[in-house]
């Protein structure tokens, strides 16, 4: 089985982490991270391209050196350089990266300032209150670290949803080849579209269970079998992801799918409703006494307790059962509702594809509009645009729009919000734009009050339209900055701004509960990919999934509006 792009990207990211902890040249660290992004977001498989004799050196951010490393990974499944690096950095230090809130920069500080090399030393330092005094840390971070260590979160690695997807998709493909399989689906947190996934729960109906289990064990990415029986098996994949496989009879499929989709609290609540109606509900079906009264489909299970079908993304026991009883479940937004994408980059700043290429890709997706939103000058590493370069790009976009049919390219910018809340571009230049997206790329460590005021001030600028990646978090790597999000949402509502739901799979910024808060306040959300290549326009599906977890309907989503109504909104 060929090595997947996400496996290659994971290795590059790991190298970048280790280089960063080791205090290596930041440009090399960045080169690996950029390459990881390119590979991850690339529409074609690196392994297939190499097999077809194509030259990877031509890809953006991949030079001769990295192309050679990709070849080594594809040929051997691993990279010697990574193994050498791992020997240099103690495994305990590398393991600390898995603690929430601890990225390579912080691990390096802990190592250099406090001489921390092991998890025990980290715990000890946290208990003594030494960590809060370090630059870039605080009492809150310290408490989080301590809590995570105590929960042993360091051992239990969670995977980003999209990482789990690429591993899961290939595994499903493999299992579908087993003799006499019928359904093969992934349930659990993966099906609920939780942003991270602890393990994959795979549900299968088949003629003979043992055939499927044998097929799983024969999969060449299985590292070891943890346990196995006639109808179930647990294995660990080479990437470290656990897979729980269950084989169920077809008559139980819906009941089992419901059970293994969870969440556990939702299941318990449904089971309790069943008990009140004299029903027993488990993974084999819905039973009245000995008689099975439902279970072939999930809808049949819900119907027995008097409920309509509840979408998996809502099954968190966070009010969805009450809403189902009251018939007030949201009619969740779908990808088909999305008419455009309001945040993306081209080669003019740090994107990999040209303006025309992005526009053509958007046309292929059937979009009515896109906004081109390059970085502003303050963000030098991303080749941010000066006023002069932005004006030139606006002219180019005007000319492009004359040629395009069906798609309108909006002139925009992802303008930096400076420390004092002013924008990194003069008003007379912003005036000409259709869309002004504002974002924070520096000054993450302001106090809650200062950070909130900074953003409120930025939104006071009448040109400001959308607040991008509003909390700045990177899932599992960087915490959200301190912010009174509710105040920001209310201010956005009253001043006619929108808030972005950034669809980059490691951001998904806002999270689900913040989306619900935004919806209840009535501020529109723009689901935006922040694409840095044509392939990344497809990240829209991650954003839509997150929006669905946040109970959003079509009417809550700015980029489900038709062009004329969108443009009116931008006029504030
Ligand atoms: P994860 O893997 O940590 O991301 O989260 P889940 O939700 O996938 O949890 P997992 O893999 O432990 O279990 C999969 C589903 O199986 C879970 O969502 C609900 C169901 N389940 C597991 N244990 C129980 C239980 O004790 N009672 C009930 N009712 N359901 C359970
Ligand atoms: Ca799971
Ligand atoms: Ca599981």
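^ Assign residues to that structure.
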């Amino acid at each position: 089985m060929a090595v997947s792009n996400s496996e290659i990207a994971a290795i590059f990211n790991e190298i970048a982490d280790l280089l960063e902890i080791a205090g290596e040249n930041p440009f090399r660290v960045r080169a690996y991270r950029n390459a990881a992004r390119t590979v991850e977001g690339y529409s074609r498989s690196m392994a297939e391209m190499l097999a077809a004799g194509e030259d990877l050196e031509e890809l953006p951010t991949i030079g001769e050196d990295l192309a050679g490393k990709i070849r080594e990974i594809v040929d051997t499944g691993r990279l010697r350089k990574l193994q050498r690096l791992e020997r240099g950095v103690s495994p305990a230090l590398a393991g600390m990266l898995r603690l929430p809130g601890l990225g390579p920069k912080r691990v390096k500080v802990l190592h250099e300032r406090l001489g921390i090399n092991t998890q025990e030393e980290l715990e000890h330092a946290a208990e003594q209150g030494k960590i809060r005094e370090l630059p870039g840390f605080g009492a809150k971070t310290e408490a989080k670290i301590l809590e995570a260590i105590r929960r042993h979160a360091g051992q239990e690695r969670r995977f980003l949803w999209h990482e789990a997807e690429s591993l899961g998709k290939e595994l499903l493909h493999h299992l579908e080849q087993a003799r006499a399989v019928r359904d093969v689906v992934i349930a659990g947190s993966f099906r609920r579209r939780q942003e991270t996934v602890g393990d994959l729960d795979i549900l299968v109906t088949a003629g003979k269970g043992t055939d499927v289990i044998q097929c799983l064990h024969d999969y060449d990415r299985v590292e070891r079998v943890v346990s196995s029986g006639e109808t179930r098996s647990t294995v660990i994949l080479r990437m470290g992801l656990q897979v729980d496989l269950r084989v169920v009879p077809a008559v139980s499929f819906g009941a089992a799918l419901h059970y293994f989709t969870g969440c556990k609290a939702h299941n318990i609540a449904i089971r309790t409703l069943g008990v009140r109606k004299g029903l027993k509900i488990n993974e084999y079906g819905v039973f009245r006494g000995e008689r099975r009264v439902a279970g072939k489909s999930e809808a049949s299970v819900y119907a027995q307790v008097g409920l309509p079908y509840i979408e998996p993304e809502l099954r968190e026991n966070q009010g969805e059962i009450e809403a189902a009883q009251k018939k007030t479940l949201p009619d969740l937004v779908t990808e088909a509702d999305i008419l455009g994408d309001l945040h993306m980059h081209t080669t003019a700043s740090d994107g990999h594809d040209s303006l025309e290429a992005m526009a053509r890709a958007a046309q292929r997706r059937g979009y009515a509009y896109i906004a081109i939103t390059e970085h502003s000058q303050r963000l030098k590493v991303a080749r941010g645009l000066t006023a002069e370069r932005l004006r030139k790009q606006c002219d180019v976009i005007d000319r492009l729009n004359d040629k395009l049919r069906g798609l309108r390219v909006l002139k925009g910018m992802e303008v930096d919000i400076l420390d004092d809340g002013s924008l990194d571009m003069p008003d007379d230049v912003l005036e000409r734009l259709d869309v002004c997206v504002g974002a924070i790329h520096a000054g993450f460590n302001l106090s809650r009050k200062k950070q909130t005021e900074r953003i409120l001030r930025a939104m006071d600028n009448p040109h400001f339209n959308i607040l991008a990646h509003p909390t700045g978090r990177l899932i599992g790597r960087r915490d959200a900055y301190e912010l009174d999000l509710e105040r920001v949402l209310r201010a956005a509502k009253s001043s006619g701004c929108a808030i972005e739901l950034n669809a980059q799979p490691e951001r998904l910024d806002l999270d689900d509960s913040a989306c619900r808060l935004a919806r209840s306040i009535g501020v529109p959300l723009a689901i935006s990919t922040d694409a840095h290549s044509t392939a990344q326009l497809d990240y829209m599906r991650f954003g839509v999934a997150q929006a669905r977890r946040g109970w959003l309907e079509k009417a809550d989503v700015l980029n489900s509006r038709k062009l004329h109504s969108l443009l009116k909104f931008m006029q504030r």
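The pocket of calcium ion (ligand 3) is lined by residues 188, 199, 201, 244 (CB under 6 Å).
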